[in-house]
Amino acid sequence: MVPTMQRVRKSPLLLTTDQKRILWHIRTQGPMPRSRLADELGMHNAAITRLARELINLGCLDELDVQATQRGRPLVPLGLSGRVGYAAGAMAHPGWLELVLVDFAGQVLVRHAEPFDSPDPRAFIERISEKLQALAGRTSLIGSRFLGLGVAVPGFVPAAHPRRRWTTQWLAGWRDIDLPDFFEDCLGLPVWTENESTLAGLADFHDHGLARDFSSALSLFVGHGVGGCIVSRRDILSGEFGNAGDVGQLFPDLDKPRPSGIDLVREINAAGGNLRSLHEVADGLEVHAAVIDAWVERATEQLLTLVYSGFAWIDPGAILVTGSIPQPILEKIGARARLAPWPSARARPPIHVTKLGSWAIPIGAALLPMHDLIVIRA
Description:
Blueprint: H1 17-29, E1 32-33, H2 34-41, H3 45-58, E2 61-63, E3 77-80, E4 86-93, E5 95-103, E6 108-116, H4 121-138, E7 146-153, E8 155-156, E9 166-167, H5 179-187, E10 191-195, H6 196-207, E11 216-222, E12 226-232, E13 235-236, H7 261-270, H8 289-314, E14 319-323, H9 327-339, E15 351-353, H10 360-374
Parallel strand pairs: 4-7, 7-10, 11-14, 14-15
Antiparallel strand pairs: 1-3, 2-3, 4-5, 5-6, 8-9, 11-12, 12-13
């Protein structure tokens, strides 16, 4: 049987390889003048000048304001511009959804959250479509170039269906369809999908500015479940079958202690709490402080086993702690992990805790269309 060809996501912006090289370099290394770009990319000054002019005209780059600190004409740095367009990122959590709009420069324009509990993927994308139109009008983005929608999906790619996702039970209706094609047909716009843990890692890697110092990172995600992400060469490492970083598979027994948000809720309720969802944990941080601290101690030890093995396998430049559990709990995990003994005389990677919280997921999803636009993959 001949497999059906996967639809290619088409961006409304077409760039040459050299234009992508410039944008990717500035995206990862920060604003810089033309002369430095030429040196670091090994290109002639004349070529950089021409390409920069093209990218400025497209709205991808801007010349940034500078103050002269020496005699003569100051070197004017080039930085990414939001003028070329914007993208959206969305995520359906149990009980609510989150939607963000992000411009090409990575600036978050809008954050929106609202109650949502339908397991129907069509209801999800129809609601996203309604909010996109409303938010675009409210923020004067009507008429701006829309670069695409990224959707974060909680689930892995099953072996029998490489174009689908085995989602969590509450989104079981999402399992039997090719999600990007389904969402595109409903929305009429280009759509990308990726695992929620992977997208949180991508967002935090760039939010912390780690791309300037490191080309790799290992990210641990603590949400309703536990997951991970591997950043390699400043890009997402998907793996042969699309499941790189799916460390939740190492904790398969849901009835045993796991470093997950659902496990935390269970521990709190076993100690006398009455939480109905992970969303309610934030309201009981002080009331359940003792239980939370005990859980953090145990969960951090479990997460450190993942860190140690990941360190041995890929030698990452940095470790990220991210997720949708409350930020103060993530901070405690990060602080405890930093104090833990290191099992090697090799360089110890720094540990960074997300500053974006659960918003890292839809922000990472919004970065997908723009990331895909400028990354040069072999």
